């Protein structure tokens, strides 16, 4: 008989629970919880699992549409791509672990998101990563970049999913708090999606995958030495990933699903056994009984508390059809994975945890699942940004060099060459050329993936910045010819208890909501990461938007590259908006002015125009930060040639007005496209030509080869 | 023409290999590593890329101890054809079917990109449809592609014209003499780090892996 740990104020605080929250637990139970129960409540009620600060606002997001098969609330979102097929996708952060231990933190971030996808019955077909690091000159940055990139690659490459896109940015606000946002998408049959709701009483609850160890127990809440003296040795709070086990778990899970044995399934992520069991019981309106002595364990003498809070990776929980147990067990034995019946569904509303015949927790399950606190945190609207004062004169080529010589805008080959971008042999567009494109295996369809946000904009103007993140994703998909389908949001912010941070969150969600509604890209999954602060300073608000677009025919792809002699046509209106621009930041080290305004109706109109005109377009890129100048360089670089743009006006070249694209058309197609634009009242003008050995902006020009050398070496020079 | 693709736990290019073989006209069977034997009447066995057994211990080392590898060696010793790509090449060196070893890339990092190669010999059914000295580009994606063999082995490989491919331009992994792929003495076992199965379809952006499959399947179909 072990001595029950005494619950005092310090222990409650160490579990991240406030006095009020603890009082609420006592009220719900009509008694004080024991130690294991306190741990279970802390796991269910922490910000990560309960979304207690964000839920009120997340509910306002548009999540439905004819293309949506399953919106937020399951392991991942599901959208219809026709022909009985579906794409299952989600993005999730692994920020804090990656800062503490970059390789394993990033690796297990990738592992977690892949698990979310295959838990629903989908084979992962693409991954992306949105990474935000501190200043290149900060002493920790290089180590974080190299560790995180190696970790992302180490996991995804071994698992065997192509990494087809992502973002890498640097800003001093991330010096003490890098962001690792991992995206994964999988392919499933639309009528064979697996959900987490258990059904049937007395059904076996089965544990699959790797064994349970003490890794990650209690995460950050386990810092106090007063209550961990029952643990022989402290474990790092960062979990360790094993992509080989995950690959086998995926194969075994998909094979098992095909046998028809699976009633419901849930992956074990944060607070693994606790959250997954409660989720399955609650969604099915059932209780769950677990016998912990049957849990496969990697270490000796683990307590109920440790097992319920362990975050060991590569594990699944499932409710199984009892008559198919032998078939199910055979599948897991084939793959040399643990398969253990660890409990059953029960009719009473109880979460009953038994360990060696001793009841370790006995909680009302539906209450535990649904009674998490929800806060309406006070928030202050972000004040309007001061107008931008005069921007000094600069030669446009020097301006471009400031951008492409910065790791923020330089070629990211140093990063993506460490990722397997082509495994599965369906990658049609690898990173570095706009959004990634993956063919749906064995069909003439494809899907495109992009991840976008401009955190500077969101800080200056959360509403417009939120809209812009969605609009940018919409344009990146459109520029390849894809029809944007749906979105996942990974909302990274500072401390929500500060009204100005909460104001950023509320504003950004308003903007995101308006944009996904207007552009018909409902949010089908997502993740919130708050408290991204160091020494009281928050990160730039970073609501990463991951989006998926569809090609119903491979012929819709705007393949590129441009060819010498192609006409360059600018779509959209340029007003020279330099506030919060890349030029201002990179060339003048100034962060000033308002974010560019986003007109969603214009975005939709221009996007529809690009798709309708795809046959006339040889290559296309959207205009994001860096504006026309950077877009022109990128189009020319992709074609390994030069280009001339007729203007040298800094506002036109580097302004970041929205709803714009730069396209290259064969000379005979250019007139047809301009005529169509005129008929559709879409602003379009011929502004230059592809070809030559230089990049020219009006009377200013630079040698293309020199610019390409700068572009392809700047990243490694800064942080390699 | 009958082909088998061996599947180890952790293989992840097995499907891609099967697709490429089928496209070239082969009938393909997938064979799980725990099988003690191979299907009868096989013309060629492909050992695919991936991370068999998680690359733990040493790439390919654990896979080489799988029951099916005994049958693989027997197949090769009977004069059967074997193609090992990437992790498959590592498995072939671990089984002893090919000489040498594959070490961690000289640059330490995993590297995935399109890589220039020079076809060094056309005297094999794998390479007969290329031109001798022809430069092609194939995708590479590996962490341990740094081929090494001792001086005597290299002398033999060169003297017997058994280097199938060398890297053209920058050597991506530090391999000795820029070697990217080698043949067995009977020229029927090929191991290579680049992925020809990722370049057999116009949608891949290149089809320079196609002659390898076409040559192999074509030669065997006419037997």
In CATH terms, the superfamily of chain B is Class I glutamine amidotransferase (GATase) domain
Distance N terminus to C terminus of chain A? 55 Å
What is the CATH domain class of chain B? Alpha Beta
Helix/strand/pairing category of chain A: alpha+beta
CATH architecture of one domain in chain A: Alpha-Beta Complex
Mean pLDDT of chain A: 94
Strand content of chain A: 15-25%
Question: And the CATH topology of chain B?
Answer: Rossmann fold
Main sheet overview of chain B: 9 strands, mixed
Alpha carbon gap, first and last residue of chain B: 9 Å
List segments of chain A where confidence is low: pLDDT < 50 over at least 5 consecutive residues: 220-235
Task: Look up the CATH topology of one domain in chain A.
Answer: Phosphoribosyl-aminoimidazole Synthetase, Chain A, domain 2
Net shape of chain A: globular
Tell me the β content of chain B.
Answer: 25-35%
Helix content of chain B: 10-25%
**Strand order, largest beta sheet of chain B:** 2-1-3-4-11-10-9-6-7
CATH level-two architecture of chain B: 3-Layer(aba) Sandwich
Task: Describe the secondary-structure layout.
The complex is a heterodimer of chains A (720) and B (223).
Chain A: H1 9-14, H2 19-29, H3 35-45, H4 47-50, H5 55-58, E1 68-70, E2 77-80, E3 85-93, H6 95-100, H7 102-119, E4 123-133, H8 141-159, E5 163-170, E6 179-189, E7 204-209, H9 243-259, E8 262-267, H10 272-284, E9 287-291, H11 304-309, E10 315-320, H12 325-334, E11 338-346, E12 351-355, E13 358-363, H13 365-370, H14 396-404, H15 413-416, E14 427-429, E15 436-439, E16 446-452, H16 455-460, H17 462-478, E17 483-492, H18 499-518, E18 523-529, E19 533-534, E20 537-538, E21 542-551, E22 567-571, H19 582-588, H20 600-612, E23 619-622, H21 627-638, E24 643-645, H22 650-654, E25 661-665, H23 667-680, E26 684-690, E27 694-697, E28 700-703, H24 704-719
Parallel strand pairs in A: 4-5, 9-12, 17-18, 24-27
Antiparallel strand pairs in A: 1-2, 2-3, 3-6, 4-6, 7-10, 7-11, 8-10, 9-11, 12-13, 14-15, 15-16, 16-21, 17-21, 19-20, 22-25, 22-26, 23-25, 24-26, 27-28
Helix pairs in contact in A: 7-8, 7-9, 8-9, 9-12, 14-19, 17-18, 17-20
Chain B: E1 2-7, H1 14-23, E2 27-32, E3 44-47, H2 67-77, E4 81-85, H3 87-95, E5 101-103, E6 111-119, E7 135-142, E8 146-148, H4 151-159, E9 163-167, E10 179-183, E11 189-192, H5 210-221
Parallel strand pairs in B: 1-2, 1-3, 3-4, 4-11
Antiparallel strand pairs in B: 5-8, 6-7, 6-9, 9-10, 10-11
Organism (chain A): Flavimaricola marinus
Subunit structure (chain A): Monomer. Part of the FGAM synthase complex composed of 1 PurL, 1 PurQ and 2 PurS subunits.
GO molecular function (chain A): ATP binding; magnesium ion binding; phosphoribosylformylglycinamidine synthase activity
């Amino acid at each position: 008989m072990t001595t029950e740990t005494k619950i005092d104020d310090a222990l409650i605080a160490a579990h991240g629970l406030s006095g009020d929250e603890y009082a609420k637990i006592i009220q719900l139970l009509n008694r004080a919880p024991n130690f294991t129960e306190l741990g279970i409540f802390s796991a269910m009620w922490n910000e990560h699992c309960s979304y207690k600060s964000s839920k009120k606002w997340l509910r306002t997001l548009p999540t439905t549409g004819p293309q949506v098969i399953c919106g937020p609330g399951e392991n991942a979102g599901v959208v219809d791509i026709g022909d009985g097929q579906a794409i299952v996708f989600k993005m999730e952060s692994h920020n804090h672990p990656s800062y503490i231990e970059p390789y394993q933190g990033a690796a297990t971030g990738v592992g977690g998101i892949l698990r979310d996808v295959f838990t629903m019955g989908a084979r992962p077909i693409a991954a992306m990563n949105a990474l935000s690091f501190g200043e290149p000159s900060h002493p920790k940055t290089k180590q974080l970049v190299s560790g995180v990139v190696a970790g992302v690659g180490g996991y995804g490459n071994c698992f065997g999913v192509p990494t087809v896109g992502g973002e890498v940015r640097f800003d001093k606000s991330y010096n003490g708090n890098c962001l690792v946002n991992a995206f994964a998408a999988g392919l499933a049959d639309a009528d064979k999606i697996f959900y987490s709701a258990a059904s049937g009483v007395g059904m076996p609850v089965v544990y699959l995958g790797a064994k349970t160890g003490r890794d990650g127990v209690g995460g950050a809440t386990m810092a106090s030495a007063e209550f961990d003296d029952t643990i022989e040795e402290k474990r790092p709070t960062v979990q360790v990933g094993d992509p080989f086990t995950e690959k086998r778990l995926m194969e075994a899970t998909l094979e098992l699903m095909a046998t028809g044995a699976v009633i419901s399934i849930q992956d074990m992520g944060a607070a693994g056994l606790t959250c997954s069991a409660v989720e399955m019981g609650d969604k099915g309106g059932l209780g769950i009984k677990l016998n912990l002595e049957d849990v496969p364990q990697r270490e000796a003498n683990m307590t109920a508390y440790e097992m319920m809070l362990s975050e060991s990776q590569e594990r699944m929980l499932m409710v199984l059809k009892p008559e198919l147990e032998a078939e199910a067990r055979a599948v897991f034995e084939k793959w040399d994975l643990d398969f253990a019946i660890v409990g059953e569904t029960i009719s009473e509303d109880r979460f009953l945890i038994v360990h060696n015949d001793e009841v370790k927790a006995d909680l009302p399950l539906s209450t535990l699942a649904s009674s998490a606190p929800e806060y309406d945190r006070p928030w202050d609207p972000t004040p309007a940004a001061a107008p931008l004062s005069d921007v000094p004169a600069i030669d446009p080529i020097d301006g471009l060099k400031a951008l492409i010589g910065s790791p923020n805008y330089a070629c990211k080959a140093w990063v993506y060459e460490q990722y397997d971008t082509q495994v599965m042999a369906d990658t049609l567009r690898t990173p570095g050329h706009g959004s990634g494109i993956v063919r749906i295996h064995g069909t003439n369809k494809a899907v495109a993936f992009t991840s976008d946000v401009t955190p500077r904009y969101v800080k200056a103007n959360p509403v417009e910045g939120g809209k812009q993140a969605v609009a940018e994703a919409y344009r990146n998909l459109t520029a390849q010819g894809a029809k944007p389908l749906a979105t996942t949001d990974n909302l990274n912010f500072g401390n929500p208890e500060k009204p100005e941070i909460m104001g950023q969150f509320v504003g950004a969600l308003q903007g995101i909501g308006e944009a996904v509604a207007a552009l018909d890209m409902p949010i089908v999954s997502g993740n919130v990461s708050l408290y991204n602060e160091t020494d009281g300073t928050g990160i730039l608000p970073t609501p990463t938007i991951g989006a998926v677009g569809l090609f119903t025919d491979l012929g819709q792809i705007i393949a590129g590259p441009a060819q010498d002699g192609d006409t360059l046509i600018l779509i959209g209106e340029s007003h020279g908006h330099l506030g919060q621009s890349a030029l201002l930041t990179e060339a003048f080290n100034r962060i000033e002015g308002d974010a560019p305004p986003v007109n969603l109706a214009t975005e939709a109109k221009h996007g529809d125009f690009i798709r309708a005109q795809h046959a006339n377009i040889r290559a296309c890129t959207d205009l994001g930060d860096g504006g026309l100048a950077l877009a022109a360089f990128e189009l020319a670089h992709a074609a390994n040639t030069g280009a001339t743009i007729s203007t040298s006006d800094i506002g036109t070249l580097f302004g970041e007005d929205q709803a714009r694209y730069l396209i290259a058309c064969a000379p005979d197609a250019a007139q047809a496209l301009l005529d169509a634009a005129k008929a559709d009242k879409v602003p379009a003008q011929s502004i230059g030509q592809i070809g030559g050995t230089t990049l020219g902006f009006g009377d200013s020009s630079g040698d293309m080869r020199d610019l390409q050398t700068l572009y392809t070496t700047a990243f490694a020079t800064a942080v390699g | 023409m009958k082909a088998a693709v061996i599947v180890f736990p952790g293989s992840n290019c097995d499907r891609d290999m099967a697709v490429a073989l089928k496209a070239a006209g082969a009938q393909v069977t997938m064979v799980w590593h725990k099988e003690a034997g191979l299907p009868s009447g096989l013309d060629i066995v492909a050992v695919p890329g991936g991370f068999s057994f998680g690359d733990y211990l040493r790439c390919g080392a654990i896979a080489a101890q799988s029951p099916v590898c005994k049958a693989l060696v027997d197949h090769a010793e009977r004069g059967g054809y074997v193609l090992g790509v990437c992790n498959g090449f590592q498995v072939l060196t671990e089984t002893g079917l090919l000489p040498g070893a594959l070490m961690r890339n000289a640059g330490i990092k995993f590297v995935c990109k399109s890589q220039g190669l020079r076809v060094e010999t056309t005297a094999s059914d794998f390479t007969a449809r290329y031109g001798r000295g022809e430069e092609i580009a194939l995708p590479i994606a590996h962490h341990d592609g740094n081929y090494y063999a001792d001086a005597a082995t290299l002398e033999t490989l060169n003297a017997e014209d058994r280097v199938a491919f060398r890297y053209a331009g920058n050597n991506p992994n530090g391999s000795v003499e820029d070697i990217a792929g080698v043949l067995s003495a009977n020229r029927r076992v090929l191991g290579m780090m680049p992925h020809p199965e990722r370049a057999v379809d116009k949608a891949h952006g290149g089809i320079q892996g196609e002659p390898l499959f076409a040559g192999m399947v074509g030669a065997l179909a006419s037997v």
